[in-house]
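Batch job 17 of 40 flagged for manual review because the log was empty.
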Amino acid sequence: MTTLPAPSLLDQQHIVLDGISWEAYEQILADLQDRPIRLTYDNGSLEMMAPLFEHEKWKTRYGRLIEAMSEELDLDVEPGGSTTFRRKDLAKGLEPDECYYVQHAHAVRDKDNIDLKIDPPPDLVVEVDITRTSIPKQPIYAALGVPELWRYDGFQFTVLRLENRKYRPADASGVFPFLPMQQFQQFVIRLASERQSPVLREFRAWLRTLDRGRSATE
């Protein structure tokens, strides 16, 4: 069995280990099971991090709005949460904060496990980067073929779309092209400072004004 760092250390800081084989990475994943620790693996480097409460609150705000939108507009969306996505042939793996299958929802609806060698990656990943990390995640997502990232760093919200194996900032989402992103982010910010139920009701009402013009997910 792989020896893991003490939980008290993981509560205080992230840990980076070098020279970790793919087999050791998979064993650590198995040993951790349902413990709330995120692993990022890239060519022998392994980062272990225990998410902070602030981080989890922000990523949940994005998740609540995306899932409310899928219900209100009757969109075919399959949430993937923080699934571990990995490919041995690329020596890369990680867990997103939130992820969603939209254009490829039909391809994973009946699956309990995802194999990225045969299954598509998520259409959308949400990453909240408000804590220091050592292993860059964007190159890993690019190698796995995730077409779009929504990134929030505590100050700025950015839509990043994959072009020629690199992420580039974009004004619009390719996954939800009908969605005005600046207004969407304002609802996320409001969830941080106001009672959530009234904000969600207003968000749903606002979405209904967009419904006639939406085109891309159907």
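Reviewer: the log was empty due to a logging misconfiguration, but the result itself is present. Residues 126 and 150 are 5 Å apart (CA to CA). Unflagging and moving on to job 18.
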